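Convert to structure. Protein one:
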Amino acid sequence: MADDLCFFIKDMLIIRPSVKNSMVLRITLLAFVMVCGVFMCSIGLKQISTFTKAGFIDIKVVEQPCEVPNVEKWERPYVHLPKPTTFNRAECACNPVRYFVISSTQRSGSGWFETLLNSHMNVSSNGEIFSVKPRRTNMSTIVDTLDKIYNLDWLTSASKNECTAAVGLKWMLNQGLMQNHEAIVEYFKAKGVSMIFLFRRNLLRRRISILANAYDQSAKPLNGKHKSHVHSHDEAKILASYKPSINTTLLIPELKQADDMVKQALEFFNSTRHIILYYEDIIKNHTVLDDVQRFLRIPQMELKSRQVKIHKGPLHEQVENWEDIQKVLNGTPYESFLNEDYRVS
């Protein structure tokens, strides 16, 4: 009887679940784990999103300021780090830029000189910007134009863009420079602009060149085209074949007027940082160009131009009434202009 009771109790305590119930349990547990996982992931993503909005979206990238170039104290006003609006200076953003202007008179070699400067890989001289009258209407238009040029936003064929080390323009004395000299001097001082004066010593040669250029403008012997500057020796010979006749009655007043304008310009802009060059000196001694590069604080390079000089022969061969000119200039302050001052092969 006791044995039967014992077996009965064992049968009551030992419960063996069926295979079907076991599978259902496993599936339920797996589903529960998956739901929990999805829930936890969604909570985590929400937290990351909230953190991003709070911590990253409002963060602004601050550009590292450029280090001030190691220059002498007097030079600091002439060192600039422009930030153009038309392009990004990229890796050259911290490369310093010098501002300059070439001031000259017509037919003094300024076009040739500017091509020499622009042959430097880090120099951008943008030509006679103020030959266009609306740009020199008043100081407001002048300043707007200069600001664009010196901020590297004036794009021309001369622009070196990112790695420009010196930027400027060619500004003739009769293109608003003299009329607005006081305000322009103040602008140059405030902006740290250096001036390169380029003149001709022999004003008689300049006068002959002006007359020859005027003839070319009207006659256009080069296939109906006017060319102030040429790149071919054949074209230069054609233009040099014209020999103007100078009005000797007006010659001395014209020479004096040109001389006075140069003297006045140097007086007006004497307080600016400047260098004075003469066309004849550059022709005779190209080391003058090294002085210019030192003045602009740019790397020394050999400067070249494709322009060909038009009038290369002796002065008496370039004018029709040479004997009359000699009579008028002999015994005057301009007598030295009759002498040969340089020779070009």
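Protein two, convert as well:
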Amino acid sequence: MSDKHPVPEVSVSQRLAQVIVNARPESSPESSRDARATGRRMLLDIAGIAVAARAQPYVRAALDALDQDGPCTVFGHARRLGAEGAAFVNGTAAHGEDFDDTYEGGPVHAGVVIVPALLAAAERHGLGGQDFLRGLAVGAEVMCRLCAVAPTKVHKAGFHPTAVFGVFGAVAGIGAALRLSAQQLTDAFGIAGSLASGIIEYLADGSWTKRLHPGWAAQSGYRAVRLAMGGFKGPRTVFEGSHGVFHGFANTLEGDFTAMLDGFGEKWIWPTIAFKPYACGTMCHPYIDCAREFGKLGLDPAAIAAIECEAAEGVLHRLWEPLDLKQAPPNGYAAKFSVPYAIAVAILRGDAGLGEYDDEIVKAPAIVALARKVKYVVDPANPYPKQFTGHVKVTMADGEVHEFRQGYFKGGVDHPLSDDDLTRKFHANCAYGGLAPADSEALLAHIDHVFDSAKVDFAPFAR
């Protein structure tokens, strides 16, 4: 290690492990209330999305790739798997339609890693609802807080923060639920650094690899914990080391670890996690809302001459470029990461739900033609990643201009979806996945009481 980065007396992972051991999100009345409410919303959302995707080819491929059956539930399937397998399939299914929760300060998808990881660990080890809740809170908190160390740098380096940070969140959550010692947690974090992964080259052609990132992180976190419990050793400088996580995945040794650790266990940020109303990349959402406002004017979309949008520089490589590809995405999955498509489909169909990202809809000539009229200019003052904003300026063929702005993400902390909104989304997702209404209601009732259960078990709802 260089002189510039000497070995610290107490490493970041050791400090993090100690605050996790001491954390009690389920204890004080205020933190417990927030934890229960957020945990319930997260579990409800992830379960519904996983059911919605259960018949998709990528879910079948993930399920068929695994040989080991076991005691753990896979949402929407009768087959039960070992802990790693269940975590992998549930994480893959729940992220596959890009309809899952988002932490705006990242962006990072916490629930899609932490729920599958903790559910698998809880069912495998016979945990009760309170330990399950403790793990959800700590795991999600770690994923969200890691985003503050080197904001936007992981994405810019070509990696998916949900995949990279997810394995550490899974370690933290499972370790907290299983009551690991500080030394075991430190070793597990060190091991997890070698299991972190997830490049974003799927952006080139809309292929499926992003879908598996949360599942891989969830199962890898469980594996790291089990190795540490068995005495396997990992580097204690996994975060800040000269060859550590942020050097490897963010190209920096200047991470702000104080921002991650400050107030951990006292001030909880995971209750600010946002839930999506649209089935696509989160930063597309404010643009969709703006486009839907234009649609309310009742003007003929064929009379649109051009659409110009202000955009944050930090999202261009994922949502705007290469522009010709984003204006005509090759399939429904690629379209989920295209602002031009999101604007066009919102104007022409008035929504951006699961059905709007069907491969055939994406190729509709009218949608492609309108998306080709959408371009952007960089807004150097855009507050991303702290805030997601939208701007759509529509110029009609007769020269008339209609301009719309939205300075927030609908579903985010300042404009959250209500519990009723999320319940409707859950039932709609279950119906999309072919689950009978009675089964959907039974699953909802079980989720509502799971944190009070003596033993977490979703086996009665395997279908």
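The mean pLDDT is 95. The first strand starts at residue 69 and ends at 72.
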